[in-house]
């Protein structure tokens, strides 16, 4: 028998704990985001469909991106127990000749101020506050010099496309060097634009056009259009003119004749570290190491170029085995949590880059949203390391990770 009694008022009062209401709507919104997917949900709600889909989507049937994300979901961790850890873990590392407080950087993203008007200045300032590198894209919407102003004492990296007009690329490399950018990402996976079908279906153009569809979509998001229309005109790091879809702009600017000769020219122009981004097989990795590059980034451009491209996370162990002792290897594509980053480091990556996660934070809340994104990933990295029983990134090893084998059903005729 359970003995029941009338609740005592004093005991009821002990249970009634009321939090002070948060009157700042942005802070309330961001504080409620506990994962990158939470930030994505907020971003989708606050951003016009065409701009959100430009960030969220990838090429053709979006198979490359889906496979990259599934690869991380198929990770099984193997923790060690009773390791006598302290209350804190060390998430710092050295990458491409300098420090980073966390094992990830903000990846290069194009047309960023179209996602949210603070754009790259928000990303660079948040990176500076967190002690991680920020990467500016050739197709960024903030100049090299303005990014340096936003992150004057931190590490800035520049991602370089080789343009049809070579002098544009050469000038950008020299401007980045002059502004103190310490690493240049020579990007090799974009000889032509991938078929980004969401953009075509949405009629997404640079700059965005007002038409009946976009006006209807803008009605519940007036803040986005207000920010866009009342802030300075978009400034591109390289393109002197705009007008057209993203694919049209890329195809007009990029040069499919790019070769190893172009890499040699850029190496002569840029005095800092040269890292090749967009590597997708072992043979190319070996050749680049033989040429003496300072690092490689295993990447399929976030699934935005060749659909059904190799999954960087799957490629990682073999590349590490072949060239990991000779160069520094970073990885991107599909990273949506701190656990994804920990798994990448465990399998031999020295570093990672996050692109969509950064843009979801930016769209969700500008600079504060990027800060929240970094906070979420930092918290997840630290907790995952503690639960694995490691105190430093250097203690992570392949034995901590198993990649589960999934059965893929055969297609029937």
TrEMBL record:
Residues 28-406 form the FMN hydroxy acid dehydrogenase domain. CDD domains: alpha_hydroxyacid_oxid_FMN. Transmembrane segments: none annotated. Keywords: Flavoprotein, FMN, Oxidoreductase. The keyword Oxidoreductase applies. Its cofactor is FMN. Gene3D superfamilies: Aldolase class I (3.20.20.70). Belongs to the FMN-dependent alpha-hydroxy acid dehydrogenase family. This is Alpha-hydroxy-acid oxidizing protein.
């Amino acid at each position: 028998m359970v003995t029941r009694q009338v609740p005592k008022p004093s005991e009821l009062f002990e249970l009634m704990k009321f939090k002070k209401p948060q009157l700042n709507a942005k802070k309330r919104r961001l504080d409620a985001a506990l994962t990158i997917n939470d930030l994505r949900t907020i971003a989708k709600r606050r951003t016009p469909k065409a701009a959100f889909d430009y960030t969220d989507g990838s090429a053709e049937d979006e198979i490359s991106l889906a496979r990259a994300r599934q690869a991380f979901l198929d990770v099984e961790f193997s923790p060690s127990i009773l390791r006598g850890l302290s209350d804190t873990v060390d998430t710092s590392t050295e990458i491409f000749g300098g420090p980073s407080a966390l094992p990830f950087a903000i990846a290069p993203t194009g047309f960023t101020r179209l996602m949210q008007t603070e754009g790259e200045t928000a990303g660079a300032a948040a990176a500076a506050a967190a002690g991680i590198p920020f990467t500016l894209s050739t197709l960024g919407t903030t100049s090299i010099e303005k990014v340096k102003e936003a992150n004057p004492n931190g590490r800035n990296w520049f991602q370089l496309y080789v343009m049809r007009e070579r002098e544009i690329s050469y000038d950008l490399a020299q401007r980045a060097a002059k502004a103190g950018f310490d690493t240049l990402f020579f990007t090799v996976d974009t000889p032509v634009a991938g078929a980004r079908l969401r953009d075509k279906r949405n009629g997404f153009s640079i700059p965005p056009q007002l038409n009946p569809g976009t006006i209807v979509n803008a009605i519940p998001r007036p803040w986005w259009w207000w920010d866009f229309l009342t802030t300075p005109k978009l400034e591109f790091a390289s393109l002197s003119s705009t007008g057209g879809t993203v694919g049209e702009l890329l195809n007009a600017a990029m040069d499919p004749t790019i070769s190893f000769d172009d890499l040699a020219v850029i190496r002569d122009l840029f005095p800092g570290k040269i890292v090749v981004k967009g590597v997708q097989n072992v043979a190319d990795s070996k050749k680049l190491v033989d040429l003496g590059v300072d690092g490689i980034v295993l990447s399929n451009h976030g699934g935005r170029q060749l659909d059904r491209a190799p999954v960087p996370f799957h490629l990682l162990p073999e590349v590490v085995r072949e060239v990991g002792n000779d160069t520094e290897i970073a990885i991107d594509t599909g990273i949506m949590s701190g656990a994804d980053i920990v798994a990448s480091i465990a399998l031999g990556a020295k570093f990672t880059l996050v692109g969509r996660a950064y843009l979801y934070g930016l769209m969700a809340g500008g600079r504060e949203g990027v800060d929240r994104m970094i906070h979420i990933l930092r918290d997840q990295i630290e907790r995952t390391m503690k639960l694995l029983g490691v105190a430093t990134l250097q203690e992570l090893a392949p034995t901590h990770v198993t990649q589960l084998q999934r059965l893929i059903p055969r297609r029937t005729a």
